[in-house]
Amino acid sequence: MSASLTKRDQRDRSKINMHEDFEVKYWTKALGVSKDELQKAVDKVGNSAAAVRKQLAV
C-alpha cells in the first residue's frame, strides 16, 4: 500500500526548531521578536514554545 499524498506533515507547534527558516519566520512573527531575540530565548530556556513565550513575557 502506498503512502497517501493527501496527508501532510503536522508540525509540532509546541517546539521551536531554529534550524528551519520557515519555523524561525513563523515564530518571530507570532512572538513579535527578532531572530536574535528568539535565538537567545531558545538558548536560555530550550525549544519549548511555552517556555520561550514565558521568557519573552508574550
Structural commentary:
- This protein is mainly α and 58 residues long.
- The chain has a domain at 21-56.
- It is built from three helices and no strands.
- It has helices spanning 21-31, 35-45, 49-56.
- Helix 2 (35-45) crosses helix 3.
- The chain is globular, with a radius of gyration of 14 Å.
- The termini are far apart.
- The model has no long low-confidence stretch (mean pLDDT 88).
Q: Please report the number of helical segments.
A: 3
Runs with pLDDT <50, length 5+?
none
Rg over alpha carbons? 14 Å
Major pleated sheet: none
Mean pLDDT: 88
Element-level helix/strand string:
HHH
Please report the distance between the alpha carbons of the first and last residues.
45 Å
Instruction: Please estimate the helix content.
Output: 40-55%
How would you classify the helix and strand content by structural class?
mainly alpha
Report the sheet-strand fraction.
Answer: under 5%
Number of strands: 0
From the spread of the alpha carbons, the general shape counts as globular
Briefly, what is this?
With 58 residues, this protein is mostly helical. The protein has helices at residues 21-31, 35-45, 49-56.
Task: Compile the SSE list and pairings.
Layout: H1 21-31, H2 35-45, H3 49-56
Helix pairs in contact: 2-3
Main traits of this protein?
single chain, 58 residues
